[in-house]
Amino acid sequence: MKIAVVGTGYVGLVTGTCFAETGNDVCCVDIDAGKVERLSTGHVTIYEPGLEKLFLRNLKEERLKFTTNLEDGIREAEIIFLALPTPPGEDGSADLKYVLGVAEQLGRLLKDYKVIVDKSTVPVGTAEKVKNAIAKNCTGDFDVVSNPEFLREGVAVDDFMKPDRVVIGVSGDRARKVMGDLYGPFVRQGNPIIYMDERSAELTKYAANSFLATKITFMNEIALLCERLGADVDMVRRGIGSDERIGKRSEEVNYDFKILNAVMDVNEKQKLHLLPKIRKFFNNDLKGKHFALWGLAFKPNTDDIREAPALYMIDALLAEGATLSVFDPEAMHNVRSLLGGKVAYAESQYDALDGADALIIATEWNEFRTPNFLKMVTSLKNKVIFDGRNLFDIAAIRELGFYYESIGRAPADSLKPNN
Ligand SMILES: NC(=O)c1ccc[n+]([C@@H]2O[C@H](COP(=O)([O-])OP(=O)(O)OC[C@H]3O[C@@H](n4cnc5c(N)ncnc54)[C@H](O)[C@@H]3O)[C@@H](O)[C@H]2O)c1
Question: Using one digit for the tens of pLDDT, what is the confidence trace for 8-41?
Fold first, then answer.
């Protein structure tokens, strides 16, 4: 099939590449001319495990193309995916200007029948708005489909190639058949395509996001409780996760906005949970202190730094007069373009430690899990680690002589020799 993908970011590039991988001809459209140039010349613009190999193969076989010209990009396409940004607007709701802007442009360009598929995460009712925006200037025949994306950055290619399920919000039979044919190769293992109306599909994405955020926040709250009660959150997580009703089934959540607001509030606070521990260790005076920071991406195996806890930590430490030397295996370029010279960029995880008063860990990259502790000891000024990701065994690291704070596990001062 011939496909266009408008917006070539984390979702669009993975979507385009994976559809090319199953034999489709894909043209990706983006307004960022630099990005299109890099992609057209064989440079992947994001870090995502497994993506480069598929990208290069499909580029070489000319199933994957890139352009800045929407008209050229969609001319041949039977299906047009919108993978455009929907950042929170001023009132916190998703800003639809990119999606509706492109929809309006499409209205002027459509000649023959096409299926326009919304893959961006959008509020309920957006499919209707997209339809109206297209229809304003359109003489051709088209259908609008809602196909929310559930991929997780860091495992996006796997998630796309082997999705747990594909959700398709669609009203007409013609579009339903087109979408079914397109996704056929991705659901050979018995994973379902779930068809529904457009509004339900849009809400499914929000409901899934909110549920997952609630689950994480719930465990974060338990972690705080663990610290107060002298329990170990890693043990509690294992203890409750093996209950089928919690680990596997996830329905029956009594969900309302109060919960969501609380979830967002707790999530924000969680990003700075280490800060009071750091302040306490340094007697509330971080001025002139120098920190090494490992991990900048919002999670491992991606270079995406949007909403990354490390950024909150950097801001807070700089505001208190500290300096930082940071390291991340993939996200350095993104932080450099955001923060410029505000922090120092280390060549390696060990370089970052040079002369640091303490190490802070913000992302659980694999290479941070079993570091060379002897090397660390020789570089760090103090043997002090604040670990936001619970990477190390508490007993083992304290045996090595480190002052070690993590989250939801025994605080450092509870383990002083006579305690
Ligand atoms: N990143 C994720 O993990 C993820 C997962 C599921 C859903 N989503 C949703 O998917 C959507 C896209 O997210 P993303 O992370 O890929 O965003 P992104 O910011 O990485 O990519 C968006 C791309 O769209 C391009 N763009 C902007 N305006 C354009 C226009 N008028 N024409 C063509 N291209 C244009 C930008 O240059 C950019 O390359 C969002 O709604 C997001 O909420 C994201």
Answer: 999 999 999 999 999 999 999 999 999 999 999 9
CB 65, CB 16: distance < 8 Å: no
Which tens digits make up the pLDDT trace of 336-383? Answer: 999 999 999 999 999 999 999 999 999 999 999 999 999 999 999 999
State in Å: Cα 388 to ligand 1 middle: 28
Could you give the CA distance from residue 88 to residue 342 in angstroms, rounded to a whole number?
Answer: 26
Contact, 220 vs 267, CB < 8 A? yes
Residue in 8, 10, 118 to alter for ligand 1 test, most ligand atoms within 8 A of Cβ: 10
Instruction: Give the tens place of pLDDT for each residue, 215-252.
Output: 888 888 888 889 888 999 999 988 988 877 776 453 33
In short, whether 155's Cβ falls inside 6 Å of ligand 1 is: no
Q: Which ligand 1 atom sits closest to the C-alpha of 153? A: 3
> For residue 415, what pLDDT is reported?
52
Report the pLDDT value the prediction gives residue 127, as an integer from 0 to 100.
98
Please give the Cα distance from 324 to 411 (Å, whole number): 24
CA nearest 329: which of 341, 346, 309, 312?
Answer: 346
CA of 372 to the centre of ligand 1 (A): 38
Return the half-sphere exposure (C-beta side, CA atoms, 13 A cut-off) of residue 323. Answer: 13
Rounded Cα gap, residues 20 and 182, in angstroms: 11
Is the CB of 84 inside a 6 Å radius of any atom of ligand 1? Answer: yes
Q: Which of ligand 1's atoms lies nearest the C-alpha of 119? A: 10
Torsion sign (Cα): 374, 379, 383, 387: negative
Nearest-atom index, ligand 1, CA of 8: 39
d(CA 188, CA 177): 16
The percentage of residues in the chain with a pLDDT greater than 90, rounded to a whole number, is: 81
Structure tokens belonging to residue 108: 């002027």
As given in the structure block, the two tokens for residue 87 are: 């950042």
Looking at ligand 1, which residue's alpha carbon is closest to its atom 43?
A: 121
Cα–Cα distance measured from residue 324 to residue 131, given in angstroms and rounded to the nearest whole number: 49
State whether the beta carbon of 85 lies less than 6 angstroms from ligand 1. yes
Strands across the sheet with 142-146, in order? 64-67, 25-29, 2-6, 79-82, 114-118, 142-146, 166-169, 193-196
